[in-house]
């Protein structure tokens, strides 16, 4: 019995020794995490600089400048996505003072909670606007840049006021209360 217990404890130690480094790797990186505060609660987004380094840097730059604070979710289509990030006009026609970004497409599928960059018809026209997926939409795969994933607070995204018609245009839209890079959060 004692020998069996000793083997069990030795095996458990080996399992823990290998499990700890893996757990440490999943620790959120505050430099690549956004806190998006909605009227309903906080949405936490893990950014993916490994997939889209230029787009992630743009989001962090604009966030640190306060660009997204009080910006409306101007286009929200139930079962599809919630779009925001037009700090210029608030209606989806504007962008930041910075130039558009070249596409950084990946093989990551557009599923619930994925955050992608909005763009015009040109693949190289993303600037400041982004969207959060309500559901899987394979037609976007490889056509838009994936910048992150909601890791908590998706229930608050679900509460954002939905738009009407096929455009999803929202009258009296909900707004981002505040957006911060987690490393800078107070």
Automatic annotation (TrEMBL):
Keywords: Isomerase, Rotamase, Signal. Gene3D superfamilies: Cyclophilin-like (2.40.100.10). It catalyses: [protein]-peptidylproline (omega=180) = [protein]-peptidylproline (omega=0). Pfam families: Pro_isomerase. It is an enzyme of class 5 (isomerase). Residues 1-24 form the signal peptide. One of its GO terms (molecular function) is peptidyl-prolyl cis-trans isomerase activity. InterPro entries: Cyclophilin-like_dom_sf, Cyclophilin-type_PPIase_CS, Cyclophilin-type_PPIase_dom, Cyclophilin_A-like. Its EC number is 5.2.1.8. The keyword Isomerase applies. Residues 37-184 form the PPIase cyclophilin-type domain. Coiled coil: none annotated. PPIases accelerate the folding of proteins. It catalyzes the cis-trans isomerization of proline imidic peptide bonds in oligopeptides. PANTHER family: PEPTIDYL-PROLYL CIS-TRANS ISOMERASE-RELATED, PEPTIDYLPROLYL ISOMERASE DOMAIN AND WD REPEAT-CONTAINING PROTEIN 1. Belongs to the cyclophilin-type PPIase family. This is Peptidyl-prolyl cis-trans isomerase. It comes from Xanthobacter aminoxidans.
């Amino acid at each position: 019995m004692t020998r069996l217990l000793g083997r069990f404890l030795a095996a458990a130690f080996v399992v823990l020794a290998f499990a700890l480094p893996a757990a440490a790797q999943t620790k959120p990186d505050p430099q690549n995490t956004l806190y998006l505060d909605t009227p309903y609660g906080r949405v936490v987004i893990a950014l993916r600089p490994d997939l889209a380094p230029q787009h992630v840097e743009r989001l962090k730059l604009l966030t640190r400048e306060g660009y997204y604070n009080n910006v409306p979710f101007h286009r929200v289509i139930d079962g599809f996505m919630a779009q925001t990030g037009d700090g210029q006009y608030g209606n989806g026609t504007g962008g930041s003072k910075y130039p558009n970004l070249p596409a950084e497409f990946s093989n990551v599928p557009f599923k619930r909670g994925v955050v992608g960059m909005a763009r015009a018809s040109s693949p190289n026209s993303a600037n400041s606007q982004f969207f959060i997926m309500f559901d899987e939409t394979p037609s976007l795969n490889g056509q838009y840049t994936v910048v992150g994933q909601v890791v908590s607070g998706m229930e608050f995204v679900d509460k954002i006021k939905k738009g009407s018609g096929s455009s999803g245009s929202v009258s009296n839209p909900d707004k981002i209360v505040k957006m911060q890079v987690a490393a800078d959060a107070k």
